[in-house]
Amino acid sequence: MLAHLGYCAFVPNPLDPIVHFDLPLINALSRADRALSELAGIARTLPNPHLLIRPFMRREAVLSSRIEGTQASLSDLLYFEAANTGAPALPDVREVANYIRALEHGLARLGTLPLSLRLIREMHEQLMQGVRGEHQTPGEFRRSQNWIGPPGCTLMDATYVPPPVEEMERALDLFEKYLHAEPGLPLLVRLALIHYQFEAIHPFLDGNGRIGRLLITLLLCVDGMLPQPLLYLSAYFERHRDEYYHRLMEVSRNGDWNAWILYFLNGVEAQSRDAIERSDALLSLWSSYRHRLQEARASALLLRLVDALFSYPAINTSMAAASLGVTFASAQANIDKLMAADILVEVTGQKRNRVYVAKEIVAAIENGSG
Q1: According to the model, what pLDDT value does residue 368 have?
Q2: Four-residue CA torsion sign, 220, 224, 225, 228
Q3: Fewest Cβ atoms closer than 10 Å to its Cβ: which of 60, 140, 253, 319?
Q4: Which of these CATH numbers, 2.60.40.1120, 1.10.10.10, 3.40.50.970, 3.40.50.1010, describes 278-366?
């Protein structure tokens, strides 16, 4: 804790802390590793990775943004992507869409840029573009003090005050070095430490929570624990929100690393199991659709459109034409065939700017307790 200009701010110690590998932690690590390995096995055998990557990514965007107070649903996001009316999106929907942009940007840049402060800033710029907080220096680390607490609170009565700018810069430098250091701890434990450290530093004026959760997915891919971005913890954090904040604060207040790591590992196990079940449901649906259409002697073009629906379960005719590389008329004909097969339904009731939704796919992505 640092006294600074009349208020107290917290400066986290550099990583690694001392972690006590007691029996509960060892067992939780074993369960999390096993569940994550099962999910990785599914990812490696996917007939088409995009059957799961985009559905899971959109679900994560909705749930991670919901932790920050947005009310947009998965259906809202899908309709926004498909409507293409030119009208401005509702602010909550734009925030969720930006989360996807930030995640996709981070994953794409990993091919040419290591996970670094530069990449984190780039993702933040994507996240904050055109939404609330956009005037709070998107893509730049803060140059002033921030704090966390109830609406209307001041620095003096804040729940948590991150490090002042000078200490923040030193902490970020050490944080980046740790990202690139050889791991001395099990990778999932290291990931729990990294997530805490980023949240404790809180380097942006807004968007820290979402960027911190994005880092989990990126690190799982960077470290080779998952071949595809299929594990997201926002559903677990949102479902156990009070405990999430409590465990983070207990590390800062009392150095209680073990309880935080245990919570994090339980989240990895729970969400890996949920992702496995959700993957099974989506792959079963995909197989069922293809079997039905192949029995009806469907064209290869129609089967390709079915595959595309798992990436974009809400489409318009122009999207279908672009995806298939065909004319508008040909795309509409294939959409009509999927409507006749009860795979797509039209949801606007309009004659223009029509949107078609694969409701069973949306339900498989959205439903369940995970």
Answers
A1: 55
A2: positive
A3: 253
A4: 1.10.10.10
Domain ranges for the chain: 2-275, 278-366
Identify the pLDDT of residue 152. 86
The residue among 70 and 21 whose pLDDT is bigger is 21
- Calpha distance 68→60 (Å, rounded): 13
Its pTM stands at 0.92
- Tell me how crowded residue 230 is: count the other CB atoms within 10 A of its CB: 28
Amino acid, single-letter form, for residue 99: Y
Name the β-bridge partners of 9: 2
Phi, psi of 160 (to 5 degrees): -150, 135
Joined together, the tokens standing for residue 208 give 């820290």
CA 150 to mean position of chain CA atoms: 25
pLDDT at 137: 86
Distance spanning both ends of the chain, measured CA to CA: 37
Give dist(CA 32, CA 86) in Å, integer. Answer: 44
For the chain, give the number of residues. 370
Q: Are 196 and 251 within 8 A, CB to CB?
A: yes
